[in-house]
Every structure is written in C-alpha cells, then in structure tokens.
From TrEMBL:
Originating species: Delphinapterus leucas (Beluga whale)
Keywords: Decarboxylase, Lyase, Pyridoxal phosphate
Cofactor: pyridoxal 5'-phosphate
Chain intervals with Polar residues compositional bias: 699-711, 728-739
Name assigned to this protein: Pyridoxal-dependent decarboxylase domain-containing protein 1
Location of the region described as Disordered in the Swiss-Prot/TrEMBL record: 43-63, 698-801
Compositional bias of kind Basic and acidic residues: 43-55, 740-749
PDXDC1-like third domain mapped to chain residues: 514-619
Domain PDXDC1/PDXD2 second: 402-508
C-alpha cells in the first residue's frame, strides 16, 4: 500500500510539474480567465439575490425571439443566473454553488478544455487523450487498491453496470455476435440482484440489454442471522442450483458494498467464492468502496478488490461537480470490451476523464484521503453521540468503520426489550403493534423534516425501510464534501435531536388518551391517519352528516373552517390545521405536536362545545330568513287587529279630522300605547307594554345558554389553554391560592353569624370578653391580608366578590 501511494504521488507530481510551466497558449489563458470571471459573476449574482430576499428578475422568465444582432457574454450569464435562481421564493435550493470551491472550478474547467482540445489535429488529440485516460485509470486503480484494472467513464451511474452485463454476455455466449438473441433463447441468462438493491435497477438493466424480466432473480436478505440488509448467501446458492437444473445460465451477480438504504455490506468474500465456483461475474457497487482509499479497511469491503468489476462515484465523495462515475473492471480480451462499449476508438469519448484528471491532480493523494477520512469521522462522531441519547435506535452494521449512520426515534413497548423495538411483547395484539409502528413512522418522518430544516448542512435523508420503518440517514460520504459539513454541524444535529425528544415522547403518550376521549365525546369522530405526526385527527359529525358517504360535505367544511378559526384564536401551544380525511374527502381538524403536558379532556371538550355552538349559530342564520318573514306577517295581522280594536273603542266620530280633534280636547282618551317587538332568539312577537310602563327594554325569552364543559377549569393569569395543573414550584402558589379562598369563606361565614347576633358584639357590650369566634375571625383576617400581600396576582372568585 505504501509503495502504491508513493507511485501515485510521483505520478501526480510529474503531472503537476507539466502544468506548472507558464501557459504559452493564449487561448488556454483566456479560457481560464473567462471561467473565473463567469463563476465570480454567478456567485456574486446569487449573493445579491439572497440579500434582496430572493427578488425575481422578470427578464429571465419571459422567453423571446432569438436576437439577430446577438448578445454579449455578460447578458448571457445574467440570463443563466436568472434561470438558476429565479424560483428561490417557491422552492429554496441548496447552496452547492457556494461550496464548489477551487477544486470545483478545476472540474468545470475540464469541460471547457475538452471542447478546446477536440479542435486539435488527430495525432495530437490521440496522444493527449490516451495520456489523460491512462493516467486517470492508473491513479484510480492504485488509490482504491484495484490492481491491473481498466476504467470506463460514464455520466449515468448505472450505465457502467449495463456495459459490464454486455461484456459478461459476450464472454459466456461465444456465438452471440453471430446468432444474437437466439442463443439467449436456448439458454436464458440470469442476473442476480439483492433485495436491498436500489429500486429500478433491474428494470433499467433489462431495458438496456433487451432482456425479459424473467432474467432477473431477486435474492432475499438474511432473516435469522446477520444483518437484515445483507444478501442471504445460502439462499443464493440454492437459487443458482435451481436455475442450472432448469437449463438457465447464471450470468452475473450484483453485490453491495454499502446498500443504498442503510449502507450495509454483503459478505463479498463468500460471494466471490460462490461466483468462482459457478463461473458467475461478480460486480460490486456502493458508497463503502470509498473507504478503500484509507489506511484501515474492514475485511468485508477489502474483499471487493478481488471482484470482477466495481463502480465508483468520486464526484460526491470528493465534492467535485460534473465529474463522471467510473467502472473499474478486469478483462483480457480488448475485442470483447470494444464490442461491449467499454472502450472506444474515438478520442472524444476518452475526454470524459478530463475533468477527473484535472481534479485528482489538484487535490493530490493526501487531499483525496483527507476528504474521505473526514466523512468517516463525521459518521463516527454522530454514532458515538447518539449512543448517549435515549429513545434513539441506531442501525449500524460495523460500529468501527461504518460511513453511514441510520437512526430512528422509538418508544419502548410494554413488556418488550428496550433494544429491540421491532419485536413486540407476546401479549400485545397485532393491531396495537401495527398502530404503534405507524405512530412511530409518522413521528420519525416529522423528526427528519425538522432536522433537515434546522441543520441543512447535515444532508439528512428520510427513508422508509421494510422492517424498521421510517428512519433518518446520515451519509456524509455523499453529502459532506458538497455541503461543507463540519464537526460542529454534527454537534448541532445531536442538540436538535435532544431538543425534539420531549415533543416526540409527549405526543406519542397523548395519542391514545386523545383517541379515548374523542371516542367518548358526543358528536366527535376519531379519524385514524397513520401519516399524521400530531396528537390526532378529529371530525365533528353534524346533524345532516351522511356517515356512509365519502364525498366532500360543504356544511361540514363550513363548520370545521369556523372551528379552526376559533381554535387558533385561543393562542395555545398547539397547532391546528384543516384538511380532508385520510380515506375520504370530508374535512377534519388535525392537531399538531404537543410540546408540554396537555389536558386532553379539556381540549376534546373545547372542540366539541365550540363545534356544537358553530353548528347552532349556523342553523340559526339559515332559519333567520324564514323566521323573520313569518314574524313580519304575524306582526301585520296583529297590528291590523289592534287598529280595529282601537276604532271600536274610540268610536267613529273621533276618526273625523276636525270633529275628532274637538272631541278629544273636551274628552281625552286614555289609550295605552301598544306595540310589537320581534325576538330573534325566540322567533316570536312580544308586546312593548313592558317597555313603556317600566321605561326599560324587556329581555323577552332568555336564550338557552351555550353548553359548557363540566370540567372547564379556571386558568391562572398567564396560563395558556389546554395546560394541565402546574406542578413543581407552582404547587406552592396553588396551595396558597386555595388556602386564601378557604380563609375568605370562613371570614364571610363568621362575619355573617356575627351580624345575626349583634347583641353579643363586643362593640355593644365593651365589658363583655371577646368570644372565641371573634378571635378566630381576627386571626383569619390577618392571615388573609398576609396571603394577599404574598400572592397579589390571584384574583378572588366571582362568588366571593
């Protein structure tokens, strides 16, 4: 290993000396200058855009015709900048362009150089491309311990594996070039993929190779022993034997050195022995292959150096943009590699390695090893920190060298092993286990999204695993170099996890209590939504609610909208939102996470009472038009009757204008003023006689009071809604308040008794000794005064004022 590193260092130094001479070509000098100015312009424009709060420049959003006179470079770069950052208000993008660094500029320069080099004459182009390809292949093979290998550079990561499959087909089917797929029909090839492989990989291979899907064989992972994300070697051997008996040809096996989900490594040593026994091509891929550049490598990853081919992605590992992926392979027949597409006689195809060739020389061996080592140290730092955090389960295969950390929040099930969250207690029902699993999945999804927002430099990913459920993945090998992740970011991530744990545990504990309270409340329906991370979901069932229908309900939507507004006006610590039900289109109220101990009974009671009040008010408004119309008609009839009665009482003569005035002057009529008032609450007409007699407006029929909860409690000043009784230090103040109220009640009682027997008062009889009750009253008054001085913030109850 030391000799290989020295050889790489000598090779890199030689190339660096070649580039250290003064640039005599003016085109190269101008190209480097233009690239530097262009990158500076784009970065400055992005910085100005962020300072202006992401204001859009409309010139880049409106397409127009191609200008005949053309545009200068500054205008074109401004257009590119607008297209790159024009949608920052809608979807904030990552800050990758800020973290490209100088090594990224070198990689971008490689694409410009490739276009310039392609204009050289054929002989110079052939020599230069051959040198670039051979140097890059040699450096990569020695850095990643893959001796005597060849390299294929490609843009799509899966493209290299597709070319390797073509090479394996040509190697095992000698007449494939002549007979084509007729050879495959007689003996169908089989490609073995792990169940933990990236989704869609098998379909991609079949589409690229023109093979039917039966050519794929999915190998399950371990179920009893070992990691549940490793390929089951014994089961694989059984599949191979069965395929041979059916007349099929085992062609290729794809193993993982770091699965796409959790970063576990297959038992590559045993797989290599099995492939050698049955003549199967072994291809290895995965992020853990980056650790081959380090001084210490685990034995499982080190076995990948003996495989037939491997795919590397140095771009994400080293933070290099627009750098191709590399597939290293070993094969002795150059004709077959040419037919398979792994090699090419075109010099322009060899220029794909130019950006990587420049970047490797710029970083050097030490820089490459340092970046990979830094990413692994970040993983170890997070892993050691999470071991000390309660309610966090870590899914790590190798605690000493795993570059990927996968963790999840969990709540210990009753009677289960705290370290095995996936194994429930024997006495638990399957439905309870499934509900607990869904609840934890929703909470872990919420936790992952919160951590991604709080620590964007961590590069976290939320994923769903078949066995463990929803987890959060930290893979610095693929993100740290691009995002610039540091050790301080890992410490901040751990601190954020610890700060969110009380919210998660409190919410999970209140879920079942909320469900029981809702199921026991009249008019409320509990909605089981496995994707909602909050306390729960509830729907109010109004009088006209069709329970069998799944369509949207306009009346219910109106009630829930008013309910949401009322709940948000309470200014509690809970968050409320309205949305459609999980399995239908009916509106529901979604209650968010609980950061403190919540009085669930008060919460549910408030929701039920408020929704019932909104429904009653809504029905009152709906019936108001009809009630008012009927009331007006009834008032007209009653007023007409009143006029007829007044006519009969006063007589006909009093209705004549002149005669009536003279008659009223000699003999006035003492008629009472009669009117009508319409009570909107009762929906009835009432007489105004009470108003004219007592000079006050009557209240009419008293409307029924809005039903209030029997458990409604009085809150202390500053206490937010839905909070349980304060504990700890607040207990003293509560005790003082209660004692204060009791003392005042005793004072009032004794004072009342003293007023009833004034004859025994010491003021009436100065010579009579003070009775014990009066002494007790005085002591209680003094005590009450002291309590008022100690806790003046406690208000007297309404009944004692």
């Amino acid at each position: 290993m030391i000799q290989g590193n020295r050889a790489i260092s000598r090779s890199l130094i030689t190339s660096a000396k070649t580039l250290s001479y003064k640039i005599a070509d003016p085109t190269l000098a101008e190209m480097g200058k233009n690239l530097k100015e262009a990158m500076k312009m784009l970065e400055d424009s992005q910085r100005r855009t962020e300072e202006e709060n992401g204001k859009k420049l409309l010139s880049g959003d409106i397409p127009g015709p191609l200008q005949g006179s053309g545009q200068d470079m500054v205008s074109i770069l401004q257009l590119v900048q607008n297209l790159m950052h024009g949608d920052e208000d809608e979807e904030p993008q990552s800050t990758r362009i800020q973290n490209i660094g100088e090594q990224g500029h070198i990689a971008l320069l490689g694409h410009s150089l490739g276009a310039y080099i392609s204009t050289l004459d054929k002989e110079k182009l052939r020599k230069l491309t051959t040198r670039i390809l051979s140097d890059t292949t040699l450096w990569l093979c020695r850095i990643f311990r893959y001796e005597n290998g060849c390299a294929y550079f490609h843009e799509e990561e899966r493209e290299g594996l597709a070319k390797i499959c073509r090479l394996a087909i040509h190697s095992r089917y000698e007449d494939f070039v002549v007979d084509g797929f007729n050879v495959l029909y007689n003996k169908m090839p089989v490609i073995y993929l792990s169940a933990a492989a990236r989704p869609g990989l098998g379909q991609y291979l079949c589409n690229q190779l023109g093979l039917p899907f039966p050519c794929l064989c999915r190998v399950p992972c371990n179920t009893m022993f070992g990691s549940q994300h490793q390929m089951d070697v014994a089961f694989l051997e059984k599949l191979i034997k069965d395929d041979i008996e059916r007349g099929k040809l085992p062609l290729l096996l794809v193993a993982n050195a770091g699965t796409a989900a959790v970063g576990h490594t297959d038992k590559i040593g045993r797989l290599k022995e099995l492939c050698k026994q049955y003549g199967i091509w072994l291809h290895v891929k995965g992020v853990n292959l980056a650790t081959l550049a380090l001084g210490y490598v685990s034995s499982s990853v080190l076995a990948a150096t003996k495989c037939d081919s491997m795919t590397l992605t140095p771009g994400p590992w080293l933070g290099l943009p627009a750098v191709p992926a590399v597939t290293l392979y070993k094969h002795d027949d150059p004709a077959l590699t040419l037919v398979a597409g792994l090699t090419s006689n075109k010099p322009t195809d060899k220029l794909r390695a130019l950006p990587l060739w420049l970047s490797l020389q710029y970083l050097g061996l030490d820089g490459i090893v340092e970046r990979i080592k830094h990413a692994c140290q970040l993983s170890q730092r997070l892993q050691e920190s999470l071991k000390k955090v309660n309610h966090i389960k870590i899914l790590v295969e190798d605690e000493l060298s795993s570059p990927v950390v996968v963790f999840r929040f969990f709540q210990e099930l009753p009677g289960s092993d705290p370290g095995l969250n996936a194994i429930p207690a024997p006495n638990m029902a399957p439905s309870a286990v499934s509900q607990e699993r869904h609840s934890c999945d929703a909470l872990n999804r919420w936790l992952g999204e919160q951590l991604k927002q709080l620590v964007p430099a961590s590069g976290l990913t939320v994923m769903d695993l078949e066995v463990e459920g929803t987890c959060v993945r930290f893979s610095p090998l693929t993100t740290a170099a691009v995002l610039g992740t540091r050790g301080e970011d890992v410490d901040q991530l751990v601190a954020c996890i610890q700060s969110q744990l009380p919210v998660l545990t409190c919410t999970l504990q209140l879920r079942e209590e909320f469900k029981q309270e809702v199921m026991g409340a009249a008019g409320l329906l509990y909605v089981d939504d496995p994707n909602w991370p909050g306390i729960g979901v509830v729907r109010y069932e109004h009088a006209n609610d069709d329970k069998s229908s799944l369509k949207s309900d306009p009346e219910g939507e109106k009630i829930h909208a008013g309910l949401l507004k009322k709940l948000n006006e309470l200014e509690s610590d809970l968050t409320f939102k309205m949305g459609p039900e999980y399995k239908s289109m009916k509106s529901c109220i979604y209650i968010g996470m609980a950061s403190d101990d919540i009085d669930v009974s008060e919460l549910v009671e408030t929701i039920a009472v408020t929704a019932r009040e909104i429904e009653e008010n809504s029905r009152l408004l709906e019936n108001m038009t009809e009630v008012v119309r009927k009331g007006i008609q009834e008032a007209q009839v009653q007023l007409q009757k009143a006029n007829e009665e007044r006519l009969l009482e006063e007589g006909v003569l009093r209705q004549i204008p002149v005669v009536g005035s003279v008659l009223n002057w000699f003999s006035p009529v003492q008629a009472s003023q009669k009117g009508r008032t319409f009570n909107l609450t009762a929906g009835s007409l009432e007489s105004t006689e009470h108003t004219y007699v007592y000079k006050v407006q009557g209240s009419g029929v008293t409307p029924p009071q809005t039903p209030s909860g029997a458990r409604t409690k009085q809150r202390l000043p500053g206490q937010k809604p839905f909070k349980r009784s304060l504990r700890g230090s607040d207990t003293v103040s509560e005790t003082s308040s209660v004692s204060h109220i009791e003392d005042l009640e005793k004072i009032e009682h004794l004072s009342g008794g003293q007023d009833a027997s004034e004859a025994n008062s010491p003021e009436r009889h100065p010579g009579v000794p003070t009775p014990p009750e009066a002494e007790q009253t005085g002591a209680l008054q003094d005590r009450a005064q002291r309590l008022e001085d100690d806790c003046p913030q406690v208000e007297e109850p309404e009944s004692l004022r």
